[in-house]
Write a structure and sequence with these properties.
21% strand, 31% helix, Penicillin amidase (Acylase) alpha subunit, N-terminal domain, alpha+beta, 10-stranded mixed beta sheet, 9-stranded mixed beta sheet
């Protein structure tokens, strides 16, 4: 019996060791870039730690971008690289494995393999240089590695990460999740509707709800959630013409609302090479170039838009479940077996899965059948080159030509330039759908004529240049409200099959009201509008308040007190009135239901939830909102815990939060990278910016862990040292890096 016991113990130990070690060796080994080129870059750090990267060539700069970003946040960069190689589950467990499943389902690697080599040589060189920088940092800092054999990476790996992440900016996960789970599809994919009402109304602003512990180890690197929280953030943007500004200055305001940590959190930088690349702005981890900001002559910012870019086809399968019918013929359904790594404590479990594909696109099988997905930007890597070219565009003509390629699948662009031009572009790779189908319903999978090819022409998408009003904005609302009365576009001019969103947001209502009421939108007025914390009594908010007011609460004194507090609320989230805290708690679920097409909340249940929360943690219903809503970086000697203003869906946005143990709401998503850009006649471009924390958000011992937080809560900005002479005058660190 003893020998048998030792044998069993030995077997268990072998299995245990195997589960601990199988994943790194099972994973396909990474390959470094094929190039043997030597790169050299100078990294100059500002007083806030923002890196200014200089190099002889653009590729030298991209190499330096990787080094600088890794110095500040190698933690997140590793997560992004793990996603780009289908290994995130080995770091983040089940949640990471869901991302890996999508990586295989969308064939992100295949997209990179098919198209990366076709990109222009200078674009590929940018990505190879960036990969070289990441590899060098990983080699020089082995103690920071989370996952064995994750590095080296190459340009194709970086490209695969782009192919994975981009579709989620227009809500593809809101289609994948119900198909995977077999749950009902969102309303616009329901039964066929009358032909006279074929216009979809996608979600106006994606919201991320739920709780996340405020610890470094638990931070998600990319919000690709497969549950009800699956969506990305919104944003605000403004452009003011010199005629409207009152002082002849052209102004652009970037006010992105992204998560404050993780793989789609902004990282600020300034880049400059002797090949003409000179840009200040911000990128996401895994990108060699900024996505928004400005160069010497033009600037732009982005807001999430939600055009109808996704179509679903139900396949007719044969009895074997291996073939589908198309135009009267049976075709083999492509299938590929994969193994998802799922970290569970000290072990990593191999979970086998099968992914399918038809000529339509990825296929998901559930109890209701087999469904194929086709989406704008499918099998296209053109965005890698398009963003690079936008960084170096000199004027409106070049900018429009690059956007006109339709390589960037989604996101609005709000533009301004040195010449005083302003523009709004509802950028979207909208499918060129043939007429005759109900594009709001599930489409027949056996009809090849319903499988669209390519996108509509750029001229067909909503866009406004130099409106008579002198101003443009977007707040994740319909593009038919952008420039005010007399300058807005007419919805009737756009075909319903384009699927342009029609919903609005409270931020949109406020922006329109404030801008139309402001004859001169100078710098002071623009800041006042941007930091507005008020709500309009309209839409979901009006309905919520009406439902609360109609409740009979005569039998519950606390609920009746809360009802009375809401009745006297002044519709601001400024922490001045007694009702702000309870209003903040109440608004979010109703906003989420409106924008995410979720089930409408029960007013009494939400009131009870809010009352219980306030009484449990504050012992009163009317604590100052600033005691409830907090900006927190919780770790290390540079931790901060500061009061915040704004709310979900105010122009000063504190959109979503984690509920900490003390009942405080630790904001994790809202106003993130904010930048004011100004072109004054006869002068060089100048800009200012701010972020909620600092340049090194995962380095608790860094003095730049949260050094911007005090400015952020006071609505203050810091200078952007766009010009090298200014960067050197304000430098706190300066070094040269090379792969020699």
């Amino acid at each position: 019996m003893g020998r048998i016991g030792f044998a069993v113990l030995g077997f268990v130990l072998v299995v245990f060791v195997g589960l601990i070690t199988w994943e790194p060796f099972h994973a396909e080994a990474g390959e470094p870039p094929a190039t043997t080129r030597i790169y050299e870059a100078e990294i100059v750090r500002s007083e806030f730690g923002v890196p200014h990267i200089y190099g002889e060539t653009d590729a030298d700069v991209a190499y330096g971008v990787a080094i600088a970003h890794a110095e500040d946040d190698f933690f997140t960069l590793q997560d992004v690289m793990a996603m780009a190689r289908g290994r995130y589950g080995a770091i983040a467990g089940e949640e990471g494995a869901q991302v890996d499943y999508v990586y295989h389902l969308l064939d992100a690697r295949g997209t990179a393999q098919r198209h990366y080599a076709k990109l222009p040589a200078d674009t590929r060189e940018l990505f190879e240089a960036y990969a070289t920088g990441l590899n060098q940092y990983a080699e020089e800092h082995p103690g920071e590695l989370k996952l064995a054999n994750l590095f080296p990476v190459n340009g194709e790996d970086i490209a695969a990460g782009f192919a994975l992440r981009q579709p989620f900016f227009f809500g593809l996960n809101n289609v994948i999740e119900p198909l995977v789970s077999g749950a009902p599809l969102r309303p616009e994919f329901g039964p066929a509707i009358p032909e006279e009402d074929l216009t979809r109304q996608p979600d106006a602003e994606p919201i991320m709800d739920g709780e996340e512990p405020a610890t470094t180890a638990s931070r998600r690197a990319l919000p690709i959630y497969m549950g009800e929280d699956g969506a990305l953030a919104g944003s605000n943007a403004w452009a003011i013409s010199p005629e409207k500004s009152g002082d002849g200055v052209t102004r652009l305001v970037s006010n992105a609302h992204q998560p404050w940590r993780g793989g789609v959190a902004w990282y600020e930088l300034v880049v400059q090479s002797n090949e003409g690349w000179h840009y200040a702005g911000a990128n996401f981890p895994g990108s060699p170039f900024p996505f928004l900001g400005h160069n010497e002559t033009i600037g732009w910012t982005n807001t999430v838009n939600r055009p109808d870019l996704v179509d679903i086809y139900q396949l007719e399968m044969d009895e074997s479940g291996t073939r589908y019918r198309l135009d009267g013929e049976w075709r083999e359904l492509e299938s590929r077996d994969i193994v998802l790594p799922v970290k569970l404590g000290p072990v990593t479990l191999p979970v086998p899965q099968t992914v399918y594909r038809s000529v339509h696109g990825p296929v998901i099988a559930n109890d209701n059948g087999y469904f194929a997905i086709r989406y704008g930007g499918i099998d296209n890597l053109g965005q890698l080159d398009a963003y690079y070219r936008l960084n170096k565009a000199k004027d409106l003509t070049e900018f429009r030509e690059i956007l006109g390629r339709m390589d960037i699948p989604s996101t609005n662009f709000v533009y301004a330039d040195k010449q005083g031009n302003i523009g709004y572009f509802y950028n979207a790779a909208i499918p060129d759908r043939p007429k005759g189908y109900n594009w709001r319903s599930v489409l027949p999978g056996d009809d090849s004529a319903a499988i669209w090819q390519g996108t509509v022409d750029f001229e067909r998408i909503p866009q406004i240049v130099n409106p008579a009003s002198g101003w443009l904005y977007n707040a994740n609302n319909t593009p038919f409200s952008a420039a005010g009365k007399g300058s807005d576009l007419d919805p009737a001019a756009f075909a319903p099959e384009l699927g342009v969103e029609l919903k609005t947001t409270n931020r949109s209502r406020r922006a329109t009201k404030l801008m139309e009421a402001t004859p001169v939108i100078d710098r002071a007025n623009l800041e006042r509008i941007k930091y507005d914390v008020a709500y309009e009594r309209a839409g979901y908010l009006a309905q919520m308040l009406d439902e609360v007011a109609a409740l009979d609460l005569s039998g519950d004194a606390k609920l009746a007190e809360a009802q009375a507090l809401l009745a006297q609320w002044d519709f601001t989230a400024d922490s001045v009135g007694r009702s702000d805290a309870i209003a903040l708690l109440m608004i979010k679920p109703f906003m989420s239901a409106e924008y995410q097409n979720k089930e409408w909340p029960d007013a009494r249940e939400e009131l009870e939830r809010s009352v219980d929360h306030l009484m449990e943690h504050f012992g009163r219903l009317d604590p100052p909102m600033s005691e409830l809503l907090r900006l927190r970086q919780p770790l290390g000697p540079n931790a901060v815990d500061l009061p915040l203003d704004g709310g979900s869906d105010t122009l000063r946005a504190s959109t979503t939060w984690s509920v900490d143990e003390d009942g405080r709401l630790s904001v994790r998503h809202g106003d993130s990278f904010v930048m004011f850009v100004e072109w004054e006649p006869g002068k060089r471009v100048r800009s200012e910016s701010i972020q909620p924390f600092g340049a090194a958000t995962t380095r608790p011992r860094s003095r730049h862990y949260a050094d911007q937080a005090p400015l952020f809560v006071r609505h203050e900005l810091k200078p952007v040292h766009f010009w090298r002479v200014d960067a050197l005058q304000n430098a706190t660190r300066r070094k040269t890096v090379s792969n020699r």
